[in-house]
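Predict the structure of UDP-N-acetylmuramoylalanine--D-glutamate ligase.
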Amino acid sequence: MKTLEKFPYQHVLVLGLAKSGEAAATLLHESGIQVRVNDQKPYEDNPQAKTLTQKGIEVVTGGHPLSVLEGIDYLVKNPGIPYTNPIVQEAEERGLPIVTEVELAYRLAEGPIIGITGSNGKTTTTTLTYEMLQESKRPVKLAGNIGKVSCEVAQSTTDKDTLVIELSSFQLIGTETFKPHIAVFLNLYEAHLDYHKTMEHYGYSKAQVFMNQDEGDYVIYNADHEDVTNYVKQAKSQPIPFSTTSYQPEGVWKDDEWLYLKQEKIVRLEDIMLVGAHNMENIMASVAAAKLSGATNDGITSVLKTFSGVKHRMQFVKELQGRTFFNDSKATNLLATSKALSAFDTPTILLAGGLDRGNEFDDLAPYLKNVRAMILFGETAPKLQELAQNNGIEQSIIVDNVKQAAEEAYRISNKGDVILLSPACASWDQYRTFEERGDMFMEAVHTLE
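Done. Here is the predicted structure for UDP-N-acetylmuramoylalanine--D-glutamate ligase.
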């Protein structure tokens, strides 16, 4: 495994554990750098803290005392910790560099990096790009917000490996020198304003994916999104636009039969299994990133013929007695659910609900035209039932959980219906993660007869 060489800092604080913090602390320690770790969770309930202590790393748990900054010249922050945290604020006042582990991954990686960001579609685009390169027999590794810690994966890469990284705004705002050879900026919608406070800061954070690029690099971007296009005007790298609505002679576009990169036919539209207009954007971005990284048209087509979605994101689950089930548990906001609903022009039973963050659901109304029933659960069930009633949906039923929702949806369904779990809410009122929620739904579906 590789370690950091010529690292310009000697005393590093890793703030916050979870997978990324543990990986960063371990890497720094193995690189001969003095590391201190600070985590909110008490030591007795903190297995990661115990593991790091056994490696000889100093760990301070149970709170965030300012004393942990003593002697520190570099701060590696868990992406989820806000900049309002007292330790982070004090570090800023002291002029310390504040980064996320993605910065460490960049310092380790020898081969080209594809960095993929956007408000929606990151996981699908990242997975597609990775699989297209794999299918084309290109050496490639997958990392980032998709569940694999970047600095951990980067330790095992060579100069021949392409590293495909899914990047959140939380990760990107904590970068200094990070420079992917290919940057992908999918879209920009209002999100995470509890963290970023303003859309300007949120957009600026996303734009860090290309800010350090130069003329030898590429930025693939959504030409149908004005805000994205305006940000990309700042890039020094070569622009590769994609559009589902207009001809892009220097990028990715489509006609009624083919998807093109510039003037080259890449894949027939009829060969693409993944449904939804939003997924066409993800596909276009993936095609551009993969082709620029050496993927073949045969490899790209092979993936698109069989890829039906990543787990919990518009994932086909099963067809039963003429009913088709989709798991979109990762749809934790209105935008994601509206895109899911837009993917179908058949009668749909929507399963939705979850954590109540105080928002209303009126923005979903234009997307309910094919929804004939709603099965609702969680804290927001009453609000969503009111939405259903206000939009002429005669059947809106509140149940206790997604297992019951799957069973009830099947009970009232007709042949030809789509049964769609797309909650429009976070899962934390009832489930630890959206994955747990989606898994319960799929288990329930597979027991139906």
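The domain at 315-447 is CATH 3.90.190.20 (Protein-Tyrosine Phosphatase; Chain A).
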